[in-house]
Automatic annotation (TrEMBL):
<dbReference type="Pfam" id="PF00583">
    <property type="entry name" value="Acetyltransf_1"/>
</dbReference>
<dbReference type="InterPro" id="IPR000182">
    <property type="entry name" value="GNAT_dom"/>
</dbReference>
<dbReference type="GO" id="GO:0016747">
    <property type="term" value="F:acyltransferase activity, transferring groups other than amino-acyl groups"/>
</dbReference>
<protein>
    <submittedName>
        <fullName>Protein N-acetyltransferase, RimJ/RimL family</fullName>
    </submittedName>
</protein>
<keyword id="KW-0808">Transferase</keyword>
<keyword id="KW-0012">Acyltransferase</keyword>
<feature type="domain" description="N-acetyltransferase">
    <location>
        <begin position="13"/>
        <end position="177"/>
    </location>
</feature>
<dbReference type="InterPro" id="IPR016181">
    <property type="entry name" value="Acyl_CoA_acyltransferase"/>
</dbReference>
<dbReference type="InterPro" id="IPR050832">
    <property type="entry name" value="Bact_Acetyltransf"/>
</dbReference>
Length: 180
């Protein structure tokens, strides 16, 4: 649980695995993610907005249980304010790929990122995968520094952005250890 003290205001968000009842709130968060950081995610806001509710619900059903793919949310009791997913690396079965990490702007810098990554890490360890990997667009220094603070190390590997060939992504890894 995150507590943010701003004067007398204390905000709390539960970190938990996404559930079937979250489909509408996940859709709202996904649209916010794409509007705020269009290069960081693998679809456009138009594609996400056009997807019917039933498709969001089906996706949530796939990631709400199991050991291959999971999504975690930060839930303060209204709008969802953060998200992080983990999926088994297709070529390295002992590695979990961290994906679709997002913190809504008013909650950035509160420790929520660390809590979401810790949730993915704990799930990864429980599934027998002991390493986390992620990719960040080269030049996204804010995200790069945030992941460094969480123990991720730049591997030196650079790959093309999956949708924008002019961009490159850098790979970072860390053990799926206990919270940092």
């Amino acid at each position: 649980m995150t507590s943010v003290i701003d004067g007398t205001d204390v905000r709390r968000a539960d970190i938990r695995r996404v559930g079937l009842a979250d489909a509408a709130r996940m859709r709202a968060l996904r649209l916010e993610m794409l509007a705020d950081a269009p290069l960081a995610f693998l679809e456009t806001i138009a594609e996400a907005a056009a997807r019917p509710h039933a498709e969001y619900a089906a996706r949530i059903a796939q990631v709400s249980t199991g050991t291959e793919n999971a999504q975690f949310v930060a839930d303060p009791g209204g709008r969802l304010v953060g998200h992080a997913g983990g999926i088994t690396h297709p070529a390295e079965p002992a590695v979990t790929v961290l994906y679709a990490v997002y913190i809504t702007p008013p909650w950035r810098g509160t420790g929520l990122l660390a809590e979401l990554v810790d949730a993915v890490s704990a799930w990864s360890r429980a599934c027998g995968r002991h390493e986390l990997m992620l990719e960040v667009v080269v030049g996204n220094d804010r995200a790069y520094r945030a992941y460094q603070r969480l123990g991720f190390v730049d591997t030196g590997v650079r790959v093309p952005h999956p949708h924008i060939p002019a961009l490159r992504e850098l790979q970072m890894r860390r053990p799926a250890s206990a919270p940092i």
